[in-house]
Amino acid sequence: MVSARGLAEVAEDIRQKTGKIPKIVVTDARRYPESIGFDGLKKELKKADAFLLLFGTGWGLERDIINRADYRLEPVEGVTDYNHLPVRGAVAIILDRLLGR
């Protein structure tokens, strides 16, 4: 387990352990114009050596973190305009879509 004071320290820890600077991926319940889809990110995961996947809770991630990310993953959407899931549910769905068969 890593004890870090911030995102920069976590990214540096990954770099030290892997020798690669991780690509940062953020998730949000909101859609951003430059969002990447699940299929697109799945392809990127296969090409890159290190990724750091960040999940927000409650009101989401800080805007600065979202702006600095390499990728903004499209949200998990349902059949209505109300778009909220418990974070553990969103994590399970996202990991299945990215890493599942």
Notes on the structure:
The structure is a single chain. The protein has helices at 7-18, 38-47, 63-68, 87-99; strands spanning 23-26, 51-54, 71-72. The chain has a 3-stranded parallel β-sheet with strand order 2-1-3. The protein has a single domain (21-99), classed as SPOUT methyltransferase, trefoil knot domain (Alpha/beta knot), CATH 3.40.1280. The longest helix is centred in the C-terminal third of the chain and has 13 residues, at 87-99. 41% of the residues lie in helices and 10% in strands. Strand 1 (23-26), helix 2 (38-47) and strand 2 form a beta-alpha-beta unit. The chain has 4 helices and 3 strands, in the order H-E-H-E-H-E-H. By secondary structure, it is mainly alpha-helical.
